[in-house]
Amino acid sequence: MVCSQPENEPDKVEKLYEAFLQAKQLAGEHTGRLSRSSFNQFVQKKTKELQTQKNCQDVEYVVETVDGQVKLKALVKT
């Protein structure tokens, strides 16, 4: 999922949240502390951070499972 302005792309962030939540549930991870609002805040903060640090417009988010743990990976799009 590619985001450039997550605060203006609620549908994209929602789909990313659902994919992340589903992956965690399938991996048997606890999801009780995961909230939609904190996830939205994280994506917004991380996107702005990478845009500033890497001087880029788009950030790609990927949900991946590594050694049984689900992670949200942020990649710079060039």
Which features characterize this protein?
46% helix, 78 residues, alpha+beta, three-stranded antiparallel beta sheet, 2 helices
What's a quick, concise take on this entry?
With about 80 residues, the chain is of the alpha+beta class.
Secondary-structure map with pairings?
Blueprint: E1 2-3, H1 10-26, H2 36-54, E2 58-66, E3 69-77
Antiparallel strand pairs: 1-2, 2-3
Count of DSSP helices?
A: 2
Q: How much strand content do the residues show?
A: 25-35%
Largest sheet: 3 strands, antiparallel
Question: How many β-strand runs?
Answer: 3
Uncertain stretches of 5 or more adjacent residues: none
| Total count of domains | 1
Radius of gyration: 13 Å
**Terminal-residue CA separation:** 14 Å
Helix content: 40-55%
Mean pLDDT equals 96
Q: What can you see in these coordinates?
A:
By secondary structure, the protein is of the alpha+beta class. The chain is built from 2 helices and 3 strands, in the order βααββ. The chain has a 3-stranded antiparallel β-sheet with strand order 1-2-3. The model has no long low-confidence stretch (mean pLDDT 96).
